[in-house]
Design goal:
heterodimer; A: about 260 residues; alpha/beta; Rossmann fold; 2 domains; six-stranded mixed sheet; four-stranded antiparallel sheet; about 35% helix; B: about 280 residues; mainly alpha; MetI-like fold; 11 helices
Chain lengths: ~260, ~280
């Protein structure tokens, strides 16, 4: 397997004792898959992504990529955050080049590489613009181009479209599917948006909350991947099943809504 | 049912409050450009006009309040004898040396304090304490340790700027988003690269602004130090003029001090605009 998560547990020490955030997480992801981990808040999905990114270490268990355990952050895993993380003083082009610059790629090569991926995300004409001149969706596309420029083994996405309006979000979904088909990259995305997960991924991990566990693994087989599929009964079945899985019960719901 | 009657009764208790349109009293909204320019000119012109009117029509002893013309005259006198230039240069030199020393040390120290919690824990308590000791209160000690030459004056400016500037720079570093730092790690940056290529450019506007504010403090301190012991300088000029009741020269000194201070401020604002175009609020 390409990306492996083996018996991962994560606990935090708090004033009120030990908080178990992730419990016995096992995931196997093959090259070229588009995986979504779906869960409500409290399912530890962001924490899980941080372990894969290497920004944090699991309490026990391990994350392996290409057979090697992950010990820290590195350019073999690209990441797109929910909040815009472009460097505001750099132009779009410089932002897209920055990862390559950090890795010592010569100027000419990194310019060509970044330009290629800016073209992939359709922002060539904004290469000289500053991030503040871009819309939210465009900023995320630059962040994706920046991550892709290093040709990572896997693209990690932390609710990347959570801050976008519905229409921009829909356009970004189409864009992501198109990008996935063209680049054949492995994508691991976390989201709380069930429809987003069903529409985008070929496989879904449904995460239960408190502590975060894998409740179910679902293979998604949609008749097609255009926005009209959202009216299709297969789409509704997947969505309803996931909603039922993730629905909070009794005390849990009261506690979260409070 | 109860809800609707409830709603009606509470509505009847609400007092109608019309909000009239206004131009002058707009809250946190832009006012028309001509009005803004007009008000800004009034801000300087009105006090000048009042000053002129009072001294012209109200028979006041010029030893108490000289007229604008008297002050202009005194300015010409001090300018032609080159005394004013000498004083200004002396004050500027002290501020320049003291401030540059303080900034050169406080900027890296502040960045280190903001970036590394370990350095912050080591320095923040003592800096926080030192900051509350007014710099002028160090004058007797400085004279005792360093005599009455240039050193105590420069040291006074250093003390007055260093601690404040370090803490203000530290604060700007704390506002660098954590996501931005983690993004850099993921893109392959190490700590040093993150510090120099991400944190540093991100805090540059904050540093320039902190320096702008603390330069104002330095400028005040040099005048204070010269009031006490100096052979030349704008503070010295005012204190001598006071002793000989040359009120017009006191005014010259005050106005020159104010104009130079304002020039510093505008210079730093300009510096901020040209060097950190990305950080400006307006598009």
């Amino acid at each position: 397997m390409f990306l492996e998560i083996n018996n991962l547990n994560k606990q935090f020490q708090t004033k009120n004792g030990t908080l178990i955030v992730l419990k016995d997480i096992n995931m196997l992801i093959a090259q070229g898959e588009f995986i979504c981990a779906v869960g409500a808040s409290g399912s530890g999905k962001s924490t899980l992504l941080r372990q894969i990114a290497g920004l944090d270490r699991p309490t026990s268990g391990e994350v392996m990529i290409d057979g090697k355990p992950i010990t820290g952050p590195g350019p073999d895993r690209g990441m797109v955050f929910q909040h815009y993380t472009l460097y505001p003083w750099m132009s779009v082009q410089e932002n897209a080049e920055f990862g390559l610059k950090l890795q010592g790629v010569p100027k000419k090569e990194r310019r060509e590489q970044a330009s290629y991926y800016l073209n992939v995300v359709g922002l060539t004409q904004f290469a000289k613009a500053l991030p503040k001149e871009l819309s939210g969706g465009m900023k995320q596309r630059v962040a994706i181009a920046r991550a892709l420029a290093s040709e990572p083994k896997v693209l990690l996405m932390d609710e990347p479209f959570g801050a976008l309006d519905v229409h921009t979000k829909e356009a970004m979904h189409e864009f992501m599917l198109d990008l996935w088909r063209r680049t054949n990259i492995t994508i691991f995305m976390i989201t709380h948006d069930v429809e987003e997960a069903v529409f985008l991924s070929n496989r879904i991990y449904a995460l239960g909350a408190r502590p975060g566990t894998v409740r179910k693994e679902m293979l998604i087989n949609l008749p097609n991947r255009s926005h009209t599929v959202k009216r299709h009964s297969t789409f509704h079945d997947y969505r309803d099943e996931l909603m039922d899985l993730l629905r909070l019960h009794g005390q849990e719901a009261v506690a979260l809504a409070a | 049912m109860t809800e609707s009657t409830n709603a009606r009764s509470i509505r009847s208790l609400m007092k109608p409050k019309p909000m009239r349109p206004t131009v002058f009293w707009r809250l946190a909204e832009d006012i028309p450009k001509p009005l803004q320019t007009g008000l800004m000119i009034t801000s300087i012109a009105l006090p000048l006009l009042l000053w002129w009117a009072v001294t012209t029509f109200a028979n006041i002893d010029p030893k108490f309040l000289p007229s604008p013309a008297d002050v202009l005259h005194a300015f010409g006198r001090l300018w032609s004898t080159r005394e004013l230039l000498k004083d200004t240069v002396a004050s500027l030199w002290r501020v320049g040396v003291g401030f540059i020393f303080a900034a050169a040390l406080s900027i890296p120290v502040g960045i280190l304090m903001g970036s590394f919690p370990s350095i912050r824990a080591l320095l923040e308590p003592i800096f926080g304490l030192m900051r509350y000791m007014p710099a002028p209160a160090f004058i007797p000690l400085l004279i005792l340790y360093l005599g009455i030459g240039e050193e105590p004056k420069i040291m006074l400016i250093f003390i007055g700027v260093f601690f404040f500037n370090s803490l203000m720079v530290m604060d700007t570093v704390k506002f660098v988003p954590k996501d931005l730092i983690e993004s850099t790690y993921i893109l392959g940056g190490n700590r040093w690269e993150t510090l120099t290529q991400v944190i540093l450019p991100h805090v540059l506007p904050g540093i320039i602004d902190a320096c702008r504010i603390n330069l104002a403090a330095a400028w005040q301190l040099v005048i204070v130090s010269e009031l006490i012991a100096a052979t030349e300088g704008l503070g010295r000029r005012i204190s001598v003029a006071g002793r000989f009741l040359r009120t017009d020269e006191i005014f010259v000194g005050l106005i020159v001090i104010g104009i130079i201070g304002l020039a510093f401020d505008l210079l730093f604002q300009y510096l901020l605009r040209v060097s950190c175009h990305w950080a400006s609020q307006k598009r």
